[in-house]
Here is the input.
Amino acid sequence: MLVRSKTTCNATPIPQSAGPVDGSNSVLDPSRGAAQPFPDINSLNTAASGIPQVEPVIPVVESTIEQSEISSSRYSGQRPSQEGLLQQLPQLQQRLQNMKQHVQTLIPRMEKLEIQGLSEQLRERLGQLRQFLEKQREQLKSRIDLLDAESKFELQQRLQAIRREIQEFNEQFASQAPALRAIITAIMQQIKTELGNELLNLTG
Here is the structure.
């Protein structure tokens, strides 16, 4: 015999809000428990109509060759002074002198180098020296172009003096070429002698 059991459910009713539920624009105010209407969009447009509209302005800067050269230099857009350039000339001459001394130290070091790759290393050193001197010359020339006519005359004399020093250095280095050839020849002769002695020891 089947017995049906009856189950009862005690549901708690959901309280109705104090505001209207007719779908109109409203929002509950938690403090009052009453529905407050949303602000009208027309009133917001009317209130904002008195605010002036600000259009973005993009400044257009005209770039010229002179402005780009000055802005890329170390003078922060200002025209360099003659005194500042003249103060840098001794530094360039000192760098040139240091490079001369450095090249002079290559001669005793060549005696300790291996014969393989000796010409490549010497060619690389000379290429670095030429690049350095050419870079210094271009920098000095660009700074001369920024000066007035009175300053150009004095700096051109300094530039000619630097060119004379470079020419003297090239002549001095060229005069030492026979000594370098003699060192290389001596090293090769020593290697041949040692190889000949080793062959004699092996065959003897």
Q: What stands out?
A: Residues 78-176 form one domain. Strands lie at 26-29, 34-37. Confidence is low (pLDDT under 50) at residues 14-27, 45-49, 51-75.
